[in-house]
Amino acid sequence: MKIASEKGFTLIELIIALALGLIISAAALQLFTGGLITTRLQQASAALQDSGVFGLEYMAHDIRLANYGNISHPELNDTSNLGGVVLTSGATGNVNLPIALDAAYLTSTGGVSNVGKDSDQLTILFTAPTKMFNCEGKEVAAGEYVLQRYFLRKDENGQNATDYALACDANIPPSTSVATIKGVGDDGQIIMPRVDYLKFYLGTQSDNKTSASYYTIAAYKTKATAAIAASEKPPRIVSIKVGVLVRSKDDTKNKLIDVSVPIQFMEGSVDLTNTTNKYLRREYTSTIALRNAMGEPL
Q1: Which of 10, 125, 170, 231 has a 20 to 30 Å separation from 160 between CA atoms?
Q2: Ramachandran category for residue 214: left, alpha or beta (phi over 0 → left; psi -120 to 50 → alpha)
Q3: 179: DSSP letter
Q4: Please, which residues have CB within 8 angstroms of residue 101's CB and are 6 or more apart in sequence?
Q5: Residue 297 pLDDT > 60, yes or no?
Q6: What is the pLDDT of residue 173?
Q7: If DSSP codes are grouped into helix, strand and coil, which group holds residue 217?
Q8: How far apart are CA 93 and CA 98, in angstroms?
Q9: pLDDT digits (tens, 9 = 90+) for 184-223
Q10: CA-to-CA dists, residue 147 to 85, 193, 217, 228, 254, angstroms
């Protein structure tokens, strides 16, 4: 009985098959890796948008109330009694808040950031138009004073020591008079996580309403001091421009993100202090008109 001969793959055929298999596997791996990076970027972008849009709108809602109820002094500057943008305080003199409030809690510059510049702090004052909740979730009755400050602080729930969040600190109700305003100075409530930089500009209008300018907080204080020294009125504040630099929660690992390049932000550019992690970052800005501080009869 004749047995049929058996044949297998030759060495050359095996090498060709292995090479083709490796090429196909590499292509599939490349597609998978690309899809994973794209998904990570999309998730980071969506999270940034949710955080930035919600946080800014939440803050803008209350900032629009600045100077509400201050009918006697609708023209807002750094000397307006009970002024809605609290730049000055003290028991005597022409100040916004006629009580001794620690200077660290006034509208100022000098806060933490993850760029080479100091973040800002904005402190506002208004009377509640109706029953409402302040930014720390405390109920406030109509007509009571609300003092709130917006600033960056360390996020205790963050992954890194330099994880900062936009927080809001409010006085403890009830505050039926300025003298009863208390409880300002705690860590406040986080309203936007993972914020690298916070900036405020004070929008001003000339007395004859023919020109408008935006000043940094420090520049406005200098301008106001010079105006008073010249027996002139300080610039009238009619709007607030706010900008935040928000970052993603996770490192995207994307080679296209160059963290060594300065980021364009509002008035110029800023340099990141963390040039290792490739977080996705986005700037969000909003300009808020202070309709209770236009200097006109209400």
Answers
A1: 170
A2: beta
A3: G
A4: 86, 89, 181, 184
A5: no
A6: 96
A7: helix
A8: 8
A9: 999 999 999 999 999 999 999 876 666 789 999 999 999 9
A10: 10, 22, 18, 26, 42
Q: Which residues contact 196 (CB under 8 A, 6 or more apart)?
A: 113, 114, 115, 164, 245, 246, 247, 272, 281
Range with the poorest average pLDDT among 34-43, 48-57, 85-94, 240-249: 34-43
CA distance linking residue 166 with residue 58, whole number of Å: 11
CB under 8 Å to 100, separation ≥6 — which residues? 89, 90, 91
Give, for 153, the enclosing helix (H) or strand (E): strand 145-154
Give, in degrees to the nearest 5, the angle at Cα 67 between 199 and 242.
Answer: 15
For residue 167, count other CB atoms closer than 10 A to its CB.
Answer: 23
**pLDDT-derived band at 280, boundaries 50, 70, 90:** confident
Query: Which residue matches tokens 């939440």?
Result: 58
Rounded Cα gap, residues 173 and 133, in angstroms: 10
Reported as a single tens digit per residue, the pLDDT across 236-248 is 999 999 999 999 8
Residue 191 token pair: 């309203």
What is the C-alpha to C-alpha distance for residues 201 and 216, in angstroms, rounded to an integer? Answer: 5
6-34 as b/e, with b when 16 or more CB fall inside 10 Å?
A: eeeeeeeeeeeeeeeeeeeeeeeeeeeee
Question: Which of 36-50, 69-83, 120-134 holds the top average pLDDT?
Answer: 120-134
Q: Which of 157, 94, 176, 84 is nearest to 122 (CA)?
A: 84
- pLDDT of 298 strictly over 50: no
